[in-house]
Structure formats: structure tokens, C-alpha cells
Queue: 2 jobs
Job 1
Amino acid sequence: MAELPRHSLYIGGKWVEPAGGEHTQVLDPATNRPIAEVASGSKEDIRAAVEAARQAFENPEWRGMDPSKRGRLLYALGQAIRDSFEDVARIESQNVGKPLREAKGDVAYVYKLFEYYAGLADKIQGDTIPVPGNRLDYTVREPVGVTGHIAPWNYPLTLACRGIAPALAAGNTVVLKPASLTPLSALRLAELTAKVGFPPGVVNVVTGPGSTAGQALADHPDVDSMTFTGSTETGKQIMTLAARHVTPVALELGGKNPQIVFPDAKLDRALKGVLFGAFQNAGQMCWAGSRVYVHESIREDFLRKLADAAGKMKLGPGLKEETQMGPVVSRSQEETVLGYIEAGTKEGATILAGGKRADAADLKDGNFVQPTIFGDVDAGMRIAREEIFGPVLCAFDFTDVDEAVAAANATPYGLMAGVWTQSLQTAHRVAARLEAGMVNINEYPITFPQTPFSGFKESALGHEQGIDAVLHYTRVKNVTVNLD
Ligand code: NDP
């Protein structure tokens, strides 16, 4: 058997062995066979990475860098990702299990993030403030310092870079801990930062378990800002750890996102949007449109077509050309998803499509779950309330707008919502009433580097993307000068 690629930690511009000397295997979720070995970083390695990031932050090579040059470095990183596009997309596709087409979309998003934030690096500015007397008062926006980033496994590179790009644009340094299941694209990113000339220590990548390395990062007194994307439970733990050092946090957590389909919608488009919103990335998305509310007058026909389309989706390894939906990321995630399907059935919901593990001969070694749609779902059922993070869609019907909006909002989450209608009045009125940080009208799901990725209630704290994300990675200093 060919030897597996073996990766070290990237700290202070060097590839170093983990303090504990241990490595763990990374698996291909389509086969559960190992594809690489990565270093199992510990608290000690996090300490070394934070120290390297601090030194790099204090070093005039980075601290004193002309912001336009910093912008050019970010742009060069975006360009390097463009140049390695196919390669990075293949890494991401195989490691997460997502279809290559989707992985390419993710990687394209990553270079657009760097290009967008490259342009902002020299536009971070303060104010002059009118004050009484013969005084000059102004504010300066400084970088906060060392920023910690903990990324999840569903969009490993995109969600890591969503925090890293604005943090770097504002002049900070970075310690990234990727998810243990999907660390490979972050390691490639580290290589590219070195290639394009980021000074040593500006970007550090420490692979390792969340319970040790991740926790050590969130609990480190010399980390000036923590950015986390993942489960709401872990997000709360990160917040508690960061609170011990009064470290600001940005959290992007779970979702149980509603899509509302009105009878005047372009139904073919709605059908595709609902399908894609539920089963893209095998449903493993914080923004999965995992609850669909269909007007009773079109319910039967719409759900029949939806179930047909779901039943025809081609499952397979991400790297296979014809694959429309890949495996879920791990055996344990597969068990969680199947557990929810069982719970839904026991609680009385009806399976309209899927409902099982996919057990075709070429899929049986991987973690394949059929795209599943439940009808007859009661709002109190677990499948209706909890984030499943797999290819499971719950379908409901409604008779009037008030009922749809109330049902859509009846969740502790508030990340994204979809509205399908051709009526401008309905679209905007419903958007205004939805308790969601993002509302997509007549397509789903969509976001851009320049628009806020925002969540209400338990879905997020703060928001990422857009200009505000750069400001999040700055601190405001006020200077008052007495001119007498
Ligand atoms: P987690 O939230 O536990 O993991 C996300 C990241 O946090 C990973 O890098 C993980 O490391 C790290 N981490 C885990 N525990 C800690 C800790 N105590 N301190 C610091 N960092 C930590 O998600 P899971 O991977 O366990 O997935 C569980 C569920 O979370 C999913 O089923 C899904 O419902 C939800 N989820 C939501 C996401 C979203 O985008 N909203 C993304 C991913 C998951 P490691 O990988 O080593 O455990």
C-alpha cells in the first residue's frame, strides 16, 4: 500500500512536529479509508503558535507594513488559490465527501473572499470628532492582535477563510485550528501563505482535537479575538472560555432554516431551490433549508415532484463526475442522521423520499444516507425542532401568511430563511417579519463575501463577511489633543 501523506503543524513559518509526537489518520468519507496523516496538536503546540503569532504581530515587518502592500499580499493569496483551484477543490471534495462541483464553488468563494478583503486593507479608517474648545479629537482603528479561529468540517476552507481574510486585512495575525475530520485544505492554505510571502508567524495552522487544542486556543490569555463556526453547544463553551479573559468572540452556529413556498412562485425554480437548499453538501450546512412550508393549494403536487427529484439524486463519491450528493462526513454523523430518521418515523412522520442508508455495493463502505423527506411532521417532533445536519427535509403546509411566518419563526435558531413568491408585497412583508439574519428571496441559499453572514437568536453572535467583519478585527482608539 502506498504511504500516506504525512503532515506537520505550521507554526512560525515552519513545518514542525507536534510536541506529543502523535499523528492521526484522516479518512475519505466515501470509503472510510485513510487518505492522510495529520499531526495531533496539543495545548503545548497552541501555546507555541500563539507565541509565534504574537511575535509576528509585534514585528515591524507585519505591524509596520504599508496597508496597500498588505492588501496586495492578500490578493496574491487569492491568486495563488485561483492557480491551485483544481487541486484544492479535489482535496476538499475527497476530504468532506462533497461533489467536486460544489467543492469548486467553495474554493472560488475562498479566492473571492481574499480578493474582496485585499481591497479593504487600506480603507480602514477612523473619524475626526467635533469636541468643545481648542482641541482635535480623532479615532484610530488598530488591529486587535492575535486572532484565534476554530473551523468546522462542512465547509472547511471557506469558513476558516471567512474569518482569516478580514483578520489579515486589518493587520492581525492568525492561529487556525481546523476540524479534525477535514484538516487538509487548511494545511494547503498554510503552504500558499508561505509561497506568496506572508511573514513567518502571521498565519499558523495547528491541527488537533477540539477538546484539547481547540479548547487551549479559546482559553489562551494572549489571544485577542476568537472566531468560531460549529455547533451551538461548542460555541457556548468557547464563549465561556473566552469570557475568562474578556476576549471578544464571533460565533456562527446552527440553524433550522425555513423556506416558504407561496402558490404564485415560479414553482420549478422553487423546487430546485428547496432541493438544493436541503441536500447540497449532503444537508450538512448551518444554512440548510431543512424545513419547507408549502401553501396547501400546491402542497400535494409540489411535494410529489420534490420526492421524485430527491429519489433520483445520484449518490456517490464527491470526485465521481456524475455524483449529485456525496456521503456524510463520518460514520458517527451517519449514525446521528439515521437516529433522527428513526425518531421521526417513531413520532409519526411519514417518509416521502429516502429514509435509509444507501446500501448499493459501491456505496456500502462509505457514509451514504439517502436524501430524505418527511411529510406529516408535527412542529413538536425532534426532527422539526433540532438541527439534524444531514440530508433530511421536513415538509409542512400552511393556509395563510401569518401561520407560515409564525411557524417559520418558532425555533431557537435564526440564521437564514427562504421565500418563494412573485409578489413584491408578499416578499418584502414576509422578509421583514422573519426572525433570520439572512432572507433569500427566489433563490436559496446564496451569500457573497461583501454581504453580512448574519444570524439571530442562537444562530450567531456578531456577523461575518462585508465591511463590518474587518471592523470586528479592529479596536478603536480615541485621541484627544489640546491645541492651546
Ligand atoms: P463542533 O462544534 O464540536 O466542532 C467544530 C469545531 O470546534 C471543530 O474544529 C472542533 O474540533 C472544535 N471543537 C470541538 N470541541 C471544542 C472545544 N471544547 N473547544 C474548542 N473547540 C472545539 O461540531 P462537531 O464536529 O462535533 O459536529 C457536531 C454537530 O455540530 C453537527 O452534527 C452539527 O449539528 C453541528 N455543526 C454545525 C456547523 C455549522 O456550520 N453551524 C458546522 C459543524 C457542525 P474537532 O473537529 O477536533 O472536534
Job 2
Amino acid sequence: MCANDREKRAAELGYAPLCLDIIQSELATKRLGTKFHYFQEIDSTNSYARRLADAGAPEGAVVIAEHQSDGRGRLGRSWESPPYCNLYFSLLLRPTLAPAHAPQITLMAAVALADTVAEFIVEPPAIKWPNDILLQGKKLAGILTESSCDAKRIEFVILGIGVNLNFPRERMPETIRDRATSLMEVAGNSFSRELVLRRLIQDLDRCYGTLEDFGFDAIAPRWQARFGLKGKTVRVEMGGDVLIGQAVGIDRDGALLVEDDRGERQRVVAGDVTAIED
Ligand code: BTN
């Protein structure tokens, strides 16, 4: 599709296509945003970024799409990706972290994402372990990290992020309408996708640099400060197992700590967490 057709199609829906020049101008990042791969439509930006990584592309590449036909979420779920209104992008990282520390990338990204959201709206964003950003208790954004490691090193991490920016409620499918929100819905006005994305890549660049240079201890307090479930009774589903207890925070490696009814701290490295109304 040529630029004119793109603009026409976006205008029909009441939107404008992304302008890469605005995103890239004054980006001034150290590691991220080295190259942009822009798509009108793609199956999943994570899948494309993985193919780039397998082909040896260097760190910092950004894959961004106006629309995903097969946007993927955590735990095999799908990610609603209607055209032109939101952000769907993936970053290719080649961290020097030990493979056991790969999950810290997701937590680092949640901190950066929450920081960016807080720069655009007064309503404070909360992090729901490990990867959701909530506004007013509803999901605003999600992170899907996929990595390739051997025993000694991480070959690459694909950091995929979806943000509901100017997503009108009436365009949300019923399956997510009760649980999802958008920046526009909470603020009552729409946002420039370019400005939010530029800021987000800058915040991610800074947070990723901090993690690489100073380790997770420099990130963890910022994560804890935004942890919305702290002290709440939670239900954690881990495969077929269910754990109910009080959310305490995160361990040094990013695992969720939950205190069970015997007062023992359990570590959760993967699972789905929901707050239980008391
Ligand atoms: C989740 O909350 O379950 C994670 C959602 C991640 C969605 C993003 S959109 C860009 C990237 N490409 C994908 O297919 N998924 C991620």
C-alpha cells in the first residue's frame, strides 16, 4: 500500500498513520531504536522480530505495525490489535545478563512502561505481576517477552509491547471490554502515538541501560513502588496448581513472593495472578 492509500484508509477510520520521522527525531537513545521496521499489517511484531534475531540482526531494532492479524499475548492468549489507534511493537535485545535473569527484562520493561504512562496522565499506573500495566484497575498495556538462551548466555530477547492508546470502548470486543481500558478513555482526550512511542523507547532505553550496567537491584525498588497488588490477597494459577495468599512483592530475581496461609513465603516464577476481593 502506498503512502496515499495508507493515509486514506486511516482517515476513513478517523485516524492518521504513524509518522516515523516524528518518532525518530530527537530520539537520542544509546541502545534502542537503531533501526525501525514499519508494517501496515503483520501477523505479530514479535514473530517478525524473532526472524530478524535469527538472521543475526543487531540489538536495538524496533518492529512496529499499525495492525496485527495474529497479535499474541501471554499464556497463549491473543492481543487485540485494531488498526491505527494503538501501539504494537517489538524490540530486539541482546542482553549480557545471565540466562537465569532473563525474566528481569519483563519487569524492567514494566517499570519503563509505567513511567511513560505516568508522564502522560495524572492517574497513577499500577503494575500487575509480571507484565500488565493497569489504570483504574483495568488493563492498559501488556508485555510479551520471548527469548532464546543456551546454558551460558542469552542469545536474544524479543520484548513485545502493546499499549491501548486511542482505543474507543465501542471498538473493544466484548471479551475484553470489562477488563481493558485505554489512555484516551481515562484521560478523556486522544494522544499522539508518535510522542508516546518516542518517550516509551527513551524510557526503555534508560531502564535497560540501568539493568545492564547496575543490575536488577537498581530497578526492583521502582517496580515495588508501582506494584498494585502489594498486601492484597491474590489467587495465582500455575498450570493446574492454585496458590492463594498475600502478595508481598518480588524476589531478587523477579519471582513473585506470596505468603500462604501458614505464613510461608512461596516463590512464583510463572503464572496468572488475580486479586481476590476481601
Ligand atoms: C499480554 O499482556 O498478554 C502481553 C501482550 C503483548 C502484546 C504485544 S503487541 C506487540 C507484540 N506483538 C505481539 O504479538 N504481542 C506483543
